[in-house]
Design goal:
With 182 residues, the chain is α/β, with parallel strands linked by helices. The chain has five helices and five strands, in the order E-H-E-H-E-H-H-E-H-E. Helix 4 packs across helix 5.
């Protein structure tokens, strides 16, 4: 299966804020530029799934306006990791002890009290299985954490224990990568 992994455009928030599952908008001009570039390269009628968060839906709807053959389907499993009580906080204002607990149990610790990295991997694996059953080629409009999780799954890794196992590379805002799976 060929999967297009599209990261939403630059969010309209202050730099340095933890915003994971927060429903923040993206820059409209950047969103339009991404949608135009995608519209020019995506195959006719390809299956499009999108995170329901505003910054992804903006892109999905803009893409659909340019390409009416692309009908995005909302999928909550494509939402970014939920950082719970840390959502909307400055990263540098979060106590070092919170980071220490997270790094000590990186795969299972619910940083912010809501969701662990391994829980993110599990839901990404579920949406991947559903996508693979429905199409040979698909587009996900999503977030950096979901894309990182999928890159682990593509390598056969379904859970992690250490922070150094979490991928660093991810497309920039409004960019994408293609992945061939299976």
């Amino acid at each position: 299966m060929k999967l297009w992994l599209v990261r939403h455009a630059r969010p309209l928030i202050d730099s340095g804020l933890c915003y994971g599952a927060s429903n923040v908008p993206a820059d409209q001009a950047d969103t339009l530029a991404c949608a135009r570039a995608l519209a020019a390269v995506l195959p006719q009628g390809v299956c499009v799934r999108t995170s329901p968060l505003q910054r992804c839906e903006q892109l999905a709807l803009c893409l659909q306006e340019l390409r009416p053959d692309l009908m995005p389907v909302r999928d909550a499993r494509l939402t970014e990791m939920d950082f719970g009580c840390w959502e909307g906080q400055r990263w540098d204002a979060i106590a070092q002890s919170a980071f220490d607990k997270w790094t000590a149990q990186f795969g299972t610790w619910r940083f912010g009290g809501r969701e662990s990295v391994n829980e993110v991997l599990k839901r990404v694996a579920a949406v991947l299985a559903d996508t693979a059953q429905q199409a040979d080629e698909a587009v996900w409009i999503t977030h950096a954490g979901v894309i990182r999780g999928l890159s682990l799954l593509a390598q056969g890794t379904t859970h992690i224990e250490r922070a150094d196992q979490w991928p660093v590379d991810v497309p920039g805002f409004g960019q994408w990568q293609q992945m061939q799976l299976g």
